[in-house]
Design the sequence.
């Protein structure tokens, strides 16, 4: 057993598992305690690539691997400081509210700090990985690297499914790290145990009394009104998120009652609640006489809490059917007709994936999604939205998009105070309005409507907020300067392996495109994201094994032509054109269009990587990871162009890699 663990290939497998597991754990951990950071988890991903790439460049230099526990301790100490990421922008909307007990620090300061802080533990891991690659044949080492990456993803998926806390995550990180210290003196292992004990000691108070869903850290508190218990308040990632209360008496001031108070004969027999959460919307619909309710929510933990703790016990009612799923995906597969559809405070506090700037609900608020909702309404049905909209332009943008789909003016009942709290109603049922004066005037908005290609409801216009540009420029400038400073004397712009750099940039965008396509096909759930990356890495593994079985060859022209042809097909045959095909053919065609570029891109990489000498293998690997970092920043171009034309940027990167390939 000990001999097997000491084996170079086993060490690569274990190290890659640790890298992927740590990356996912830090995304969840940091986002849970730093307000607003969940909307920028791609910074953590990019910081990971930077750290591994920089570490690979430093392989053969003085080892920093032994400092790994201290880098994690630094991150945990940073978290215990308890601060908010604070910034002001009228160009975008975020739904988290800073807590009164935390220090407000400007986003322009926190974002680069988080980026470089996250990169620290991965520098030591990347250095170790680079050194291990030098001890084996490049493609064989890469094979174990991919297998380890898949293992790390599946391991974190398992602990997420079980609802474990960061205490368990960091314990697993410790175990994996100790296996990599198997060749070190006992003193080094004891030292690591001691530092990790301090880390877990610091984490324990932070996690006490919390639930960990696949998306959020959740806390539940009793809610008292005049010293009388009325239910519970639920927070997610340090922000008020939902209430689990008994339905009060008919109250004009409570947005939940809007569809019942504004219309005559508000009898809704069949009801769909998207974003049902803990069940308060469902409880009210039951109280108002609903015969059948479909309750849909993406978070299994919040639904479970509602089943156990909601004082009205709505999910125990036989009239209620509960589905844990993505709301958009539910609408895609729905064949029922509803008298009332409620989008119930469907504002997530996180990105759907660190590879793309889409939130969990982004594809729920597009023209295509609203069309699905319209088709799901009965002849006298009503679609209702309510939320704290934060900005008036968001209300106008949403209303104009609804008018475009329904060809009628919505009712907009939104106040100018209290973060624009209010409701938007649309559908045939508006003919039953009690008073005609509440009918909205013609809704006109010059702002772009969100679509499946440009799913950015919360972005005011095409482009991205100026603060994003500042952050990206700051990080890229500092990172580039650091790379060339540390590698001075043996690496410069002329000798840098740009071929591998551009391969990394293009591959990152390929992964992003796959994430987006699978979100549209199967929903923006955490398990879909897991399946995407396992599918991508499995395709990579298959391509690597295929290359290893073939004779070495540096002939890549036919592979580049195949890859570029498929990418062009992705531009001219978008997924929506497949919607009319039979189910099996639609999924087969979609998988072919989305996963086949991964296969050819990996064949190009493995054929290029195979002849690398032991002296250059870590440099090539580092360049590839630094290119992935650059590709991660390039993904922001989707805010200008939409995701469909990200394929054009991907083509650019692969053409650049083709032109910089040394014969």
Sequence:
């Amino acid at each position: 057993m000990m001999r097997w663990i000491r084996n170079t290939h086993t060490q690569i497998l274990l190290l890659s598992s640790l890298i992927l597991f740590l990356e996912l754990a830090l995304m969840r951990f940091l986002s849970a305690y730093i307000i607003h950071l969940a909307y920028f988890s791609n910074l953590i991903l990019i910081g990971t690539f930077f750290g591994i790439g920089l570490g690979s460049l430093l392989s053969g230099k003085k080892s920093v691997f032994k400092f790994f526990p201290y880098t994690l301790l630094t991150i945990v100490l940073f978290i215990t400081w308890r601060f908010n990421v604070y910034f002001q922008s009228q160009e975008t909307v975020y739904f988290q509210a800073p807590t009164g007990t935390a220090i407000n620090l400007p986003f322009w300061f926190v974002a680069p700090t988080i980026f470089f802080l996250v990169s620290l533990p991965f520098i030591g891991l990347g250095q170790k990985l680079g050194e291990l690659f030098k001890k084996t044949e490049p493609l064989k080492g890469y094979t174990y690297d991919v297998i380890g990456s898949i293992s790390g993803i599946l391991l974190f998926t398992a602990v997420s499914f079980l609802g474990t806390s960061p205490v368990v995550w960091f314990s697993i990180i410790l175990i994996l790290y100790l296996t990599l210290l198997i060749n070190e003196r006992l003193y080094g292992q004891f030292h690591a145990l001691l530092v990790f004990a301090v880390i877990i000691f610091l984490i324990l108070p932070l996690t006490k009394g919390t639930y960990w869903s696949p998306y959020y850290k959740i806390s539940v508190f009793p809610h008292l009104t005049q010293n009388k218990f009325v239910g519970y308040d639920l927070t997610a990632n340090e922000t008020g998120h939902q209430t689990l209360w008994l339905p009060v008496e008919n109250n004009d001031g409570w947005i939940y009652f809007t569809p019942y108070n504004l219309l005559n004969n508000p009898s809704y027999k069949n009801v769909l609640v998207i974003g049902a959460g803990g069940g308060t919307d469902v409880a009210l619909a039951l109280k108002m006489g609903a015969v059948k309710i479909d309750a849909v929510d993406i978070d299994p933990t919040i639904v479970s809490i509602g089943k156990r703790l909601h004082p009205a016990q709505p999910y125990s009612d036989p009239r209620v059917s509960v589905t844990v799923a993505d709301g958009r995906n539910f609408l895609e597969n729905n064949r029922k007709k509803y008298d009332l559809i409620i989008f119930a405070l469907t504002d997530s506090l996180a990105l759907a994936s660190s590879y793309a700037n889409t939130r969990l609900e982004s594809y729920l608020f597009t023209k295509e999604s609203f069309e699905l909702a319209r088709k799901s309404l009965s002849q006298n049905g009503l679609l209702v939205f309510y939320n704290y909209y934060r900005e008036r332009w968001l209300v106008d943008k949403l209303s104009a998009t609804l008018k475009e789909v329904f060809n009628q003016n919505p009712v907009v009942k939104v106040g100018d105070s209290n973060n624009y709290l209010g409701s938007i109603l649309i559908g045939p049922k508006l003919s039953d309005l009690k008073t005609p004066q509440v009918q909205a005037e013609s809704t006109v908005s010059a702002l772009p409507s969100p679509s499946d290609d440009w799913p950015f409801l919360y972005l005011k216009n095409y482009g991205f907020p100026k603060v994003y540009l500042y952050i990206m420029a700051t990080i890229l400038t500092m990172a580039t300067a650091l790379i060339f400073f540390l590698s001075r004397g043996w690496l410069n712009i002329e000798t840098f392996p740009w071929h591998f750099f551009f391969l990394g940039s293009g591959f990152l965008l390929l992964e992003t495109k796959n994430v987006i396509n699978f979100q549209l096909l199967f929903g923006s759930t955490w398990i879909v994201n897991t399946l995407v990356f396992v599918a991508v890495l499995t395709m990579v593994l298959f391509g690597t094994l295929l290359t290893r079985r073939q004779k070495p060859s540096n002939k890549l022209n036919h592979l580049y032509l195949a890859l570029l042809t498929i990418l062009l097909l992705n531009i001219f045959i978008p997924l929506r054109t497949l919607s009319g095909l039979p189910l099996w053919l639609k999924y087969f065609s979609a998988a072919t269009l989305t996963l086949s570029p991964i296969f050819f891109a990996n064949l190009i990489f493995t054929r290029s990587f195979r002849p690398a000498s032991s002296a250059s293998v870590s440099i090539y690997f580092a360049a590839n990871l630094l290119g992935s970092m650059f590709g991660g920043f390039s993904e922001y171009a989707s805010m200008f162009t939409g995701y469909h034309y990200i394929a054009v940027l991907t083509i650019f990167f692969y053409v650049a890699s083709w032109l910089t390939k040394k014969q």
